[in-house]
Amino acid sequence: MPIIADFVLPDSAAALPLPSAPDAAFFVTFTTSNLPETGESWCPDVRAALPHLNAAFSAEGAPAMAYIEVGQRPEWKVLTNVYRTTWGISNVPTLVRYQRVDGEVKETGRLVEGEILDGERLKGLIGRQ
Asked: Ranges for the Thioredoxin domain (predicted)?
């Protein structure tokens, strides 16, 4: 499955486009917006994690993963930012796995900031050995 760069996040996890297989997962990586001057993230943790995420989710047979930008630094720092309040994100980058549990879409795992750089933890979360 592809990396989805232009994904529109629904209002809740219940509306995420999970594949039909019973154990299927859909991944969302919450990152920062890029600075217009540089074309890169303003967050050094995001810049460090992107190569690892791109490699893991570009591999043959990898599950789908969508990138969602939480905004520029001033937007992100507001405590009422929708990604903080609705999606429970308090650090960037955050990689979240969603799966069906008892018929409902639920978060079933996450890696935050430097945890994404740990290849074994990343493979474990996405279910690849």
From this structure: 24-101
Single-letter residue type at 122:
L
CA distance 120 to 111: 12
**From the CB of residue 19, how many other CB atoms can be counted at a distance below 10 Å?**
13
The strand pair at 94-101 and 65-69 is best described as unpaired
SS3 of residue 67 by DSSP: strand
| pTM for this entry | 0.93
CATH architecture of the domain formed by 3-10+24-126: 3-Layer(aba) Sandwich (3.40)
- Single out the residue of 59, 63, 52 nearest to residue 118, CA to CA: 52
CA distance 39 to 127: 31
DSSP string, 90-105: -SSSEEEEEEEETTEE
Please tell me the distance from the alpha carbon of residue 65 to that of residue 25, in angstroms, as a whole number: 9
pLDDT tens column, 46-102: 999 999 999 999 988 889 999 999 999 999 999 999 999 999 999 999 999 999 999
Q: Which residue has the tokens 């074309």?
A: 39
